[in-house]
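Quick start: what a row looks like.
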Amino acid sequence: VCSRVAEDEESVWMALASVTNNLAAAGSEPVAVLVTLLLPKGYQESDMKDLMLFLEKKCREYKIEIAGGHTQVLREINAPVINLTAIGKRPEEWGSTAARPGQDIVVAGYIGAEGTLRLVKNYKKDLGKRFSESFLEDAMVLREHLSVMKEAAIAGKSGVRARHDVSGGGI
């Protein structure tokens, strides 16, 4: 489960990557998501449609179905919130509890990608005082590397028994 302010496509992608990476790291194949959109009063229907079209496109890329959802307008909030619940299938014991002494540790993906994207997005003005615009733009390329589903699938086919999603805490 992941909840985020859905201010743009990037935040929706980060939410999807987060829930699917959690499943993939646990040895499950993400197959579907449930979507809840909480919208502030006055939110434009066209903006909601744009977010959902983007989410549908990303789900298609990763062969994930949108299995259902809920949309509600709330006067108590001032920004749209997306809540995603991922559903997966898992063949047997997986996850960090399956680790055994003597096994190798392999890191897949980009450590710190999500954190870097959040920092650049939230503090771009301050970071711009210290780093060039092109450097900050280059950091945004990490958005294409948020998902580790491909790496997790390869690990599963290679006999890997234990996985851990570091976004859930710790290496």
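That is the whole record. The chain has a mean pLDDT of 85. Helices lie at 9-25, 45-61, 113-128, 133-139, 149-157.
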